[in-house]
Write a structure and sequence with these properties.
alpha/beta; elongated; 220 residues
């Protein structure tokens, strides 16, 4: 292998996707796909074994998922550049992958010539964001911020005890569990929940729980 050759590890639970990426990247004279892994645990092992320069990591896989694998790889000595692969089934997975240590992300539908050039960019240590993916991330971030702002505004009008109840609802607790934690009667908790449905303009407990999440009262 030439000294300036870029070693790439492909990680996806779909063998056909791995084969497709191998074919595309293998057509470039300076890129070698050293291995393909089909889950996060195997990906970490392959990184240790092959010491690739770039890892193309699917996010949603059975077993050890891509997010966990990215975190584990980031903790290795001299970790490679990891680029998340996505079909945008869930924008939050993309945002979380960047927080976990990914250097960027690409759509699986990225044109072959763009994929090759972006892998080269990643190998040089630069952030990789395909144009279409960037547009979706900006939109997702804007939507996330709007939801957060709205939730914080609504929560700001609650009493301290109502915030306590809201937090419990965000954790998925039942009325009985909330009553036990806050030392209230179930009837009192039920009254709080009924009033908060109106006050927060929510149709059900699930919407209240999501609002608690958006307001940062609970994490998932």
């Amino acid at each position: 292998m030439a000294a300036d050759e870029i070693k790439v590890l492909v990680v996806d639970d779909e063998p056909m996707v791995c084969a497709h990426l191998r074919t595309i990247l293998g057509s470039a004279p300076d890129i070698t796909v050293v291995d393909a892994a089909h889950d996060g645990a195997a990906a970490v092992e392959a990184v240790v074994r092959h010491q690739p320069h770039v890892v193309l990591m699917d996010l949603r896989m059975p077993g050890v998922d891509g997010l966990t694998a990215i975190e584990r790889i980031a903790g290795l000595p001299s970790p490679p550049t990891v680029v998340a692969l996505t079909t945008f089934d869930a924008d939050q997975y993309v945002i979380r992958s960047l927080r976990a240590g990914a250097a960027g992300f690409l759509l699986k539908s990225t044109p072959p010539e763009d994929l090759i050039s972006l892998v080269r960019v990643a190998a040089d240590g630069h952030t990789v964001l395909s144009p279409a993916a960037t547009q979706r991330l900006v939109a997702a971030s804007a939507a996330e911020q709007a939801a957060r702002d709205k939730a914080l505004s609504l929560v700001g009008d609650l009493t301290e005890r109502e915030v306590d109840v809201l937090t419990c609802l965000g954790e998925g607790l039942s009325n009985a569990q909330i009553a036990d934690r806050l030392h209230l009667s179930e009837a009192t908790v039920k009254g709080y929940v009924s009033r908060m449905l109106v006050k927060l303009d929510c149709a059900n407990r699930t919407q209240i729980g999501l609002l608690a999440y958006d307001a940062g009262l609970v994490t998932r």
